[in-house]
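Board work, copied verbatim: C2H2-type domain-containing protein
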Amino acid sequence: MNTGKKNGIKALKCTVCGKVFKFQSRLKRHLIIHSGEKPYRCTQCDRCFNVSSNLKRHLMFHSNEKPYRCTQCNKCYTCSSSLKTHLMSHTGENPYRCTQCDKCFNQSSDLKRHLLIHSGEKPYRCTQCNKCFTWSSSLKTHLMIHTGDKPYRCTQCDKHFNRSSTLKRHLLIHSGEKTYRCTQCDNCFSCSSSLKTHLMIHTGEKPYSCTQCDKCFNYPSTLRTHLMIHSGKKPYKCTHCDKCFTSRICLLRHNRSSHGDFPHKCSHCSKGFKDDRGLKRHKCRNISSEDREKYTCWMCGEFCHNCCGILYHMYKHGMRKETE
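↓ predict structure ↓
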């Protein structure tokens, strides 16, 4: 431990990282960070902390105690630092700036997370499928795919979600609230991400490009679906007929047309149609050459779909002949 002078006061310097402290107690507490020691244990969940104040703050999560209230919107927080960060949303203050893209944040932790995007670093690896993530929270959410865990439940329709943010977005469907308005066409959206994506229609921006054919897309999901064309991957399998598709939308479209509630069924392949016209078109495309010849008018070459149709059609020729 080195000592020096800081503003005329005797300063205590950490020999590991060079940080300077005014008080011995502060330096002692700081040294625990380097040693990795976590002597303060939570009796409710066995989580450990390196300082008593962090344990005290953690215990508020178990007690649901939130003593720090925002005077502007009455939102409550477990610690003063969270309230301080929240207040910046009212003032619009974002003091932490990224030097690479000038994006600003109201928390240093958010800036640190953001910087990983520029470095391309993905330190959090899934042990089950080796997929890597920039943030631990993303890995935690991803793991729920393997476990099937969906802890966030909608009280209105019993639908479950693996993210609280997805549940919040889903709840807007029930409330019908659409607070995000497009200034160019007055279209309204329930979440900011939907508005952001929509704005690309006006700007013509397509930031997601395929590395194999240089085709560009305005949705990451559309790019993912497109990439399956190159890989030949078809992960969406129909449970009725084992046919496979590149996207969920294609599978849904297939289910609607082939296995949905369509009363007009083809007697040869059981494919269903909403109306008789659709069934007739299908039969016309798939009819055998023998039947096609049987139901084709020898006078004008018009094709009819069945025996009644050809008889009626020939009757019209006879009527026309009589009038002539």
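The longest strand covers residues 2-6.
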